[in-house]
Write a structure and sequence with these properties.
binds glutamine; Cobalamin-indep_Met_synthase; six-stranded parallel β-sheet; alpha/beta; 24 strands; binds zinc ion; 5-methyltetrahydropteroyltriglutamate--homocysteine methyltransferase
């Protein structure tokens, strides 16, 4: 019998984003709750059967979610803040109110804050624990889904976000930190123990607790927290009504600093990531061994890339683990939530290209093949054509290198990474040149993309309309959006980004070196999905990309129009990067391409240029000791390379999303932009303290309202927000803007919201 195989989690959105469509149609009122629930049930069934068909032994359940699995966990534990309970909505609508805010007959509440899930582009809703909440088992979702699969004849492995990760990610109201008092810890442990008891009763064999937070640096009290939780929970795996095995699942890095303790607990399974945490996890296993009762779930099939697995490499890892214990299961490295559904639909890619890819469905087969191969002896392995076929994918060079790109990189000098004169001096020259008022108002770049706009772009792509028709269509939209921005009185205008489907894909399409998929969607938050392009070979710019649109927009107004680019780090982080060359090299290639674009925009008369680094924080390594040497030491210089060639009077902006960047505030200042806008409205405002304490020099626009929610903020609300900002920052360095681009919003909420924002800025300005 070959090794046990396990999948940590499976994408839930559906092969054709059926879940997204169904939920959004329910929100719009064009379908019913029952319709949505039916779609959800069908998808779960399909995904379980798929995994069963592939031969997976431990198939996850409860990895399904209507919005976010951490939000489900909050609800499971009864951590539903009073403001949502007070709306007295039914279960699904309460969930959606927490996820996206609610504005209607029953009240007006903002959504829970949203944050990036570790180093992924998935976003979770931050659990909020207030004193009025009683932590208790509050939902039957995990049990219902287990039973649903059981009826289909599949005994699944229920998956829950573990208590340690839940508590470490939870906050008090207003974003205040949580203290882990005994009462709270016991209450949470009690719920998880109840869950185990219940699953033992229902006939589950394994339950998986996801504890990715264990791969982070430990703070005082963390070890005790972990111990006191699991000391109370684990005894519940055996009860009079049956017993169930517990898999402690970690991912996104190593747990070497707590492995000894974990091992002492004798979990039935410990899931370790041998992709991102390989060396440290192996070293920990060697040092402390593996408890008698424990199976090591070796995470070797990457849940975060789209490339085929290198079997020889994976088998090497399995061998190394087998030297320590013979109880080894083969697993994904993390949930497959972070990869697209299947390569099958990608017939647009050449077969010799496509064979290098493995999405979720293909990864299931890889797990099975690796498990089978791992049982073969050396002689049989030599004869294995599966192994030989796989090896052929990795032999030799996949693509030719571009010698021009290589030469340009070789010629770079340290002065290419430094903009002169110093920022202080530039800022005062810019003030003179640009003539902006105090608290200048602007937006982040995109404006609502209606169905009509998307349809027009699609028609152009399919050559159904001529380039002239398309150009005049986009120009008409630019004219309209400029006119509206002027009318409501914004200071720095944007052209609206109507020509862009997506801030990364658009640039990928205009650069050499990228490939695109038709249907490779990945969930980003709620029903939002992204379709990252693929870096396939060396990157360079063929010709100007955005210059004509920005120049056109600037020619239509006497106000300043901001040029709009995506930065190199974000392009890489929101693409599928190559694995045959370093991220640093790919980012530098991108930086040179975008640098050319910046200089061309400047030549075309654009005086303000925004280079979005929305995803800069995303790939910051989880362990602090890796931050600089593995990432910031090249990511920050790459950004500087993009803009170091402009005149002192050209104002360089950047923008970041959902960033918790308190701890890298100095590195962000060192990007040497003149202005930064960032998300702040939906996370706590502690970043303002950080700006204050760090003597941040970049002028900054902390978002004054949340664009991820359809609700319209009032003028008073925004004024109050601006006052909060002015408590911490000097007025001359403050900008007023929403927290992100408006592309996913409708006109109905966008324009009143912006009017309130401008009115609020004017009102505060008058009092200064
Ligand atoms: N300029 C982009 C926009 O406005 C930025 C989007 C983002 O930060 N995610 O859409
Ligand atoms: Zn943003």
């Amino acid at each position: 019998m070959s090794a046990l195989t396990s999948v940590i989690g499976f994408p839930r959105i559906g092969s054709n984003r059926e879940l997204k469509r169904s939920i959004e149609s329910y929100w719009k009122g064009t379908s019913t709750l029952e319709d949505m629930q039916t779609t959800a049930r069908e998808l779960r069934k399909k995904h379980w059967l798929l995994q069963q068909g592939a031969g997976v032994d431990l198939i996850p359940s409860n990895d399904f979610s209507y919005y976010d699995q951490l939000l489900d966990t909050s609800i499971l534990l009864g951590a539903i803040p009073q403001r949502y309970r007070r709306l007295s909505l039914d279960a699904e609508d309460t969930l959606f109110a927490m996820g996206r805010g609610y504005q209607g007959e029953r009240g007006d509440v903002t959504a829970l804050p949203m944050k990036k899930w570790f180093t992924t582009n998935y976003h979770y809703l931050v659990p909020e624990i207030d004193d009025s909440e009683e932590i208790k088992l509050n939902s039957t979702k995990p049990f219902d889904e287990f039973n649903e699969a059981k009826k289909l004849g599949i005994i699944t492995k229920p998956v829950l976000i573990g208590p340690y990760t839940f508590l470490k990610l939870a906050r008090r109201p207003e974003g205040a930190p949580l203290t882990f008092d005994k009462g709270l810890v016991n209450a949470v442990a009690r719920v998880y123990a109840q869950v185990l008891t219940k699953f033992a009763e229902l006939g589950a064999t394994w339950v998986q607790f996801d504890e990715p937070y264990l791969v982070l640096d430990k703070q005082d009290g963390d070890l005790e927290l972990f111990k006191s939780l699991y000391a109370k929970i684990l005894p519940a795996r055996d009860s009079d009504n049956g017993s169930v095995k517990v898999l402690l699942q970690t991912y996104f890095g190593h747990i070497a600093d707590i492995y000894e303790t974990v091992n002492l607990f004798e979990f039935d399974g410990v899931g370790l990531d041998f992709i991102e945490g390989r060396n440290d996890n192996l070293a920990a296993l060697k040092k402390f061994g593996v408890a008698q009762r424990t199976t090591i779930f070796a995470g070797i099939v990457n849940g975060r890339n789209i490339w085929r697995n290198d079997y020889a490499d994976s088998l090497g890892v399995l061998d190394a683990v087998k030297q320590i214990t013979d109880r080894v299961a083969v697993s994904t490295g993390c949930s497959l939530l972070h990869v697209p559904f299947s390569v099958e639909g990608e017939q647009g890619l050449q077969p010799e290209v496509r064979r290098h890819f493995a999405f979720a469905v293909e990864k299931l087969h890889e797990i099975e093949e690796i498990a089978a191969l791992s049982d073969l002896d050396e002689a049989a392995l030599k004869d294995s054509h599966e192994l030989a076929d796989n090896q052929a994918l990795f032999d030799g060079h996949r693509v030719e290198a571009d010698s021009n790109v290589a030469k340009r990189i070789e010629a770079l000098h340290s002065s290419d990474f430094t903009r002169l004169p110093e920022r202080k001096e530039r800022q005062s020259e810019q003030r003179e040149e640009l003539g902006l008022p105090l608290l200048p108002t602007t937006t982040i770049g995109s404006f609502p993309q209606t169905r009509e706009i998307r349809a027009e772009r699609a028609q152009f792509r399919k050559h159904e309309i001529s380039e002239e028709q398309y150009d005049s269509f986009i120009k008409q939209h630019i004219d309209e959006v400029l006119e509206k921005q002027e009318r409501i009185g914004l200071d720095v205008l944007v052209h609206g980004e109507f020509e862009r489907n997506d801030m990364v894909e658009y640039f990928g399409q205009h650069l050499n070196g990228f490939l695109f998929t038709k249907n490779a969607w990945v969930q980003s938050y709620g029903t939002r999905c992204v379709k990252p392009p693929i870096v396939w070979s060396d990157v360079s710019r063929a010709q100007p990309i955005t210059v004509a649109w920005s120049a056109y927009a600037q020619s239509r107004t006497t106000r300043l129009v901001k040029g709009m680019l995506t930065g190199p780090v974000t392009i890489l982080n929101w693409s599928w990067p190559r694995e045959d060359v370093s991220h640093q090299l790919q980012t530098t290639q991108l930086a040179l391409a975008i640098r050319d674009e910046v200089l061309d925009l400047e030549d075309a008369g654009i005086k303000v240029i925004q280079i979005d680094e929305a995803a800069l924080r995303e790939k910051l390594p989880l362990r602090r000791s890796d931050w600089h040497k593995l990432y910031l030491d090249w990511a920050i210089p790459a950004f500087r390379l993009v803009h170091s060639g402009v005149k002192p009077t050209t104002q360089i902006h950047t923008h970041m999303c959902y960033s918790e960047f308190n701890d890298i505030i100095r590195d962000i200042d060192a990007m040497d932009a003149d202005v930064i806008s960032f998300e702040a409205s939906r996370s706590d405002l502690t970043v303002l303290d950080a700006i204050h304490d760090a003597h941040f020099e970049t002028e900054a626009g902390p978002g004054v309202y949340d664009i991820h929610s359809p609700r319209i903020p009032s003028q008073e609300e925004i004024e109050a927000r601006i006052d909060e900002i002015l408590d911490k920052m000097e007025a001359p360095s403050v900008w007023i803007n929403p927290d992100c681009g408006l592309k996913t919003r409708g006109d109905a909420e966008t324009w009143p919201s912006l009017e309130h924002m401008v009115a609020a800025a004017h009102a505060v300005r008058a009092r200064l």
